[in-house]
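Pilot study result, target chain (312 residues):
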Amino acid sequence: MDSSSLEMDLSNLPKANWWGDDYLYQVGGFWLLPQFIQSIYRVVKHFKPIPSDIILASYPKTGTTWLKSLVFSIIHRCSKHRLSTNHPHELIPTLEVQVYATQTIPCINTDHQSSRIFSTHIPYQLLSETLDSSECRVVYVTRNPKDTLVSTWHFVNKWDKARGDPWPLDVAIDKFCDGETPCGPYYDHVMGYKRLSLERPKNVFFVTYEELRTNPITHVKKLAEFLGCPFEGEDEEEQVQEVVNICSFEVLSNYEVNKSEDSPTWFQLPYNSFFRKGNIGDHTNYLNDVTIERIDALTREKFHSLGFMYGT
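Predicted structure:
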């Protein structure tokens, strides 16, 4: 991304048809939705993290909403009740969707005494200069590729366009495997942050959705320690359990704010679209054995061959 101009010229970018007559554009090896390219460009050009910043990074549909809830509750323990009346995406804004959505560069509080928390789906490969130049902390969550694919397919089919032109599952499978999905390729996105976590473990916390779901107590403790605010005192276990409880899918999905059919100003879908099931292994309800083996073979090639034994 050339930071010498104010806007990115899309005319010469490679593009790929991914759904109906909609196209993705390729920037730095990643496929991006055209409506977010300029805001991503502004993030890369203008966002300057300070050491106390916390950046929650993820590929879409891998547990972002839940991670926001957990981190907010850990950092703002006295205010964790706000989750009952505020959607997680309002409490922790996404850099390219909310913070840098307009051409007016935002004036962000730079008080080093308090932690600013943002999220992003921008691949590390595009954001490397920004993150490498700062001591900010990054938390990255990933999810089994097959569940990620199915969750993405469901989410896209909630868009208005899908009412008359649904995204077929077989097309979604092909596009996912080819890497031609928003912020894809999925595997490159994950490995960018995985490598960063190995190179800078003090600054990057890499966790899987499955780890968080199956052993939330342990990983919430680790996350709190990484964020510099460990649970302490005689009631430490109770504190951790409370965070886990109030951030459970069952509790969060039943808050009125998260069941709302109103849409935010920054996205086309209603607030309730960010909560579906949250289950591990839901892909078995939608993918046949041939497709599962196809994705597993790709996972072995893209992850296992690089020493990341995950996703099958």
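One observation from the pilot: The chain has one domain: 15-306. A full batch analysis is planned for the follow-on phase.
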